[in-house]
């Protein structure tokens, strides 16, 4: 918490409400206030002169400035709107600002609050800190003081969100940072996907990305985001399968202090962290049924209710979903809500298998080789003609992820494995120690461990049930 305690000079008017307004389009002396351009501000003060001064100061620079004459009116505005910063007078008839702020924190209010008061002492400062005020400005003040306070709040929140999203992405991502933003390849299937992405990216429509594990669904999602009008806003990837079912609601929607055991403080969820940008929900088929109904409500109303909160918070999001499951079959089995499926399945983009992408595998292998060699600090291994033929003929059940793992293993060994011969297309049986035979033994071993349950084996292997069915038919199992 910071305290803006410098007083206006003796030449300044004693009432802030009579200070000359800052002209629209002009920047006051001092730092730039570019962060204010997209900000929504709520002013809560019982003095019309103060509200008028703050509106004239902030209005030309902010996206939205609302005002409330008392805490009851302010509460109603919070119920229907989302604000980035609340500027709050402490001494008001009926209820003081500190008490009202503490009440709002308890029912799900996460935005920064700036307390303004003409009567400051240590007790008031301590109460404001405990109530969750982010800044404290003494009256009388000049326009620059309040502009600086608001800019500090916005910058702090932006940095906190960016930090959290980056840490979450590092924990959740199963791939390296490179290649995430680029759909590599010039094959016909890849070009079709890229063309579809270019058409849908500028639209607000929700997108459902389907395809087997490792085909690049997150890459496609990031491409959609980078080509949209939200490219400069957050892109928040969420792996629904990686979050424990009992924590997923709090992780997505946020929670207030005391909402459950261990909730020592309130926190915004990933939905609110992605506000204005794109939320990518991967493995949407793994979302528990109770959360599916809550997600449907968010899609319909564009409002989220943090765990333990009495208030719903408006959100502005572009949704992208991904799954390697056949959701229509999941609906028939009662594992996925039909109404949610039809809401998601507005525009579906299916990512092709690596084995169907022609020479893309060779281009990807070359890129992985150069990138991973730098990352591991090892010299690149030449990809000769025999290896290129093997890469092109192999079935790649693990798709791009399997290719990447092969290249990393090759760099560690200093050469492609001796047994790497790829699967045969000429009907000949593979050598006993070939990669195809190792693949067969591995898949059959996992099937034996799960007592022949092909869906469970597919989940453990990170491939689709269809791939296992196709392999078993090939092996006459």
TrEMBL record:
Chain segments carrying region Disordered: 1-29
Composition skew (Low complexity), residue ranges: 1-16
Q: Residues in domain Response regulatory?
A: 40-154
Biological-process GO terms, alphabetical: phosphorelay signal transduction system; regulation of DNA-templated transcription
- Quote the SUPFAM superfamilies the UniProt record gives: CheY-like, Homeodomain-like, P-loop containing nucleoside triphosphate hydrolases
Q: Which UniProt keywords apply?
A: Activator, ATP-binding, DNA-binding, Nucleotide-binding, Phosphoprotein, Transcription, Transcription regulation, Two-component regulatory system
Which positions fall inside the Sigma-54 factor interaction domain?
183-412
Residue numbers bearing the 4-aspartylphosphate modification: 89
Name of this chain's protein: Sigma-54-dependent Fis family transcriptional regulator
Species: Bradyrhizobium frederickii
